[in-house]
Design a protein that fits this description.
about 425 residues; 11-stranded mixed β-sheet
Length: about 425
């Protein structure tokens, strides 16, 4: 077994010192004198990381359509893109799934659906799920199929999704007043469909909640609301980051420190209802070298056959979108073509590649933050200014680690 030395972080918090070893997901507290005697490094198993695009993936994401049936106040995509009716040809969907299985090394393969709103391409979604399952049976692979949705579909679709999906990530921003203000008066339909899915398959349902300046004070209330109505479901919280669209000017980003504090304040409610809640940087877990799969294994195929590492690059090549495109479907040859140089640039976003992150105890939680937002803020350069400062993230991480030690609540992340 190949090993490496891992740093032991000693974080002063008032009269105590938190001893944190990210690679082992361990944290405990001690006094300052004892902390001085603790070793600075420990030996851990070396993690295998991709250093170049190998063109072999554990999953594929099909962006079935650019169309959407909502006009959310904070939509990351341009209004003209959302209004398009582009949909993925079966030829591209089939080719992407065939490619995944042909080159697969893992025993479990995943298919995920995105949009726009993927359920608008209902027949294509069902046909893709069926074909993916049949490929898995043929090649004796375990298959997992998931969907990210706004929840706005006719109720009978909820029954089919509950039966055929392995996981359903549903966007619900909280109570009726909050959801309707941020997500186009959609609460009643979304809540009804969430209830139908939960009644049939509670373990499959997860929630994605965007917190704005207008809703941040009510974050603990939102956690309790979702926990009470959907006990045991995972809840994911992320702060709103403003776009350049005119429509978002009335909806502002929350103060990040306040977002972090309200997230911590909500933890007792999560424990009460058996909910697992997450946010960027929350929890102690096996170390991550990137904010998401953008610099790792993302294989996202758009309706036009572009291959992306980040879904935010789907609507436009502007504002950083072109940074995440590293391949395309060649229609004449019916094959996917990849550009390894493009992926080499994406790899630089990993925290272990960045000198300024090397001595930070929060880097495994932070993961270098969202590269799409960085690309926009730095006019097309990866590794630019994050949405929140390093000081804010370190402060949040320290509070969170202390809470985990004091309240033994790491099981809710």
């Amino acid at each position: 077994m190949e090993t490496v030395e891992a740093k032991v972080f000693k974080i002063p918090v008032k009269e105590e010192v938190l001893v944190f070893i990210p690679q082992l997901a361990k944290v405990y507290k001690t006094d300052s004198e004892t902390a001085k005697k603790i070793t600075e490094v420990v030996t851990v198993k070396k993690e295998k990381l991709r250093t170049e695009k190998q063109e072999v993936f554990p999953s594929v994401v099909l962006r079935l359509t650019d169309s959407c049936n909502l006009h959310c106040a904070y939509c990351q995509e341009k209004r003209e893109a959302v209004a398009k009716t582009n949909s993925m040809p079966w030829e591209i969907a089939k080719a992407a799934m065939d490619y995944l299985f042909k080159n697969a090394k893992e025993e479990t393969l995943s298919l995920n659906f995105l949009g726009g709103e993927a359920t608008l391409e209902w027949e294509l979604l069902k046909a893709s799920e069926d074909y993916f399952r049949r490929l898995g049976l043929k090649q004796k692979k375990k298959t997992l199929v998931g969907l990210t949705t706004n929840g706005c579909f006719v109720p009978y679709k909820a029954d089919w999704l509950a039966l055929n999906m392995n996981n359903i990530l549903l966007a619900l921003d909280g109570t009726k007043a909050i959801q309707d203000a941020q997500r186009d008066d959609s609460f009643d339909l979304v809540f009804e469909n969430a209830r139908k899915i939960y009644e049939k398959a509670p373990a499959k349902l997860q929630f994605r909640t965007t917190i704005s300046a207008e809703s941040v004070e009510r974050l603990p209330e939102i956690v309790a609301f979702l926990g009470k109505n959907f006990p045991g479901c995972r809840q994911s919280y992320e702060p709103l980051f403003e776009t350049s669209q005119e429509e978002t000017k009335s909806l502002k980003s929350p103060a990040i420190e306040l977002f972090f504090d309200k997230f911590l304040e909500a933890l007792p409610s999560a424990q009460k209802y058996g909910s697992r809640i997450t946010a960027s940087g929350a929890g102690i877990k096996p170390p991550s070298v990137a904010f998401c799969g953008t610099a790792e294994t993302n294989f996202i195929v758009t309706c036009e056959g572009r291959v992306l590492a980040c879904n935010q690059g789907a609507a436009t090549a502007a504002e950083g979108g072109a940074l995440f495109e590293y391949g395309h479907f060649e229609e004449k040859k019916k094959v996917f073509i990849f550009d390894k140089d493009c992926f080499a640039q994406l790899v630089t976003a990993r925290t272990e590649k960045r000198e300024e992150c090397s001595g930070c105890y929060a880097r495994f939680n932070c993961g270098g933050t969202c590269q799409a937002e960085k690309g926009k803020s730095e006019a097309g350069a990866l590794g630019g200014k994050p949405e929140y400062s390093c000081e804010e993230m370190r402060g949040f991480a320290a509070k969170l680690l202390k809470l985990i030690v004091d309240k033994d609540c790491k099981n809710i992340f």
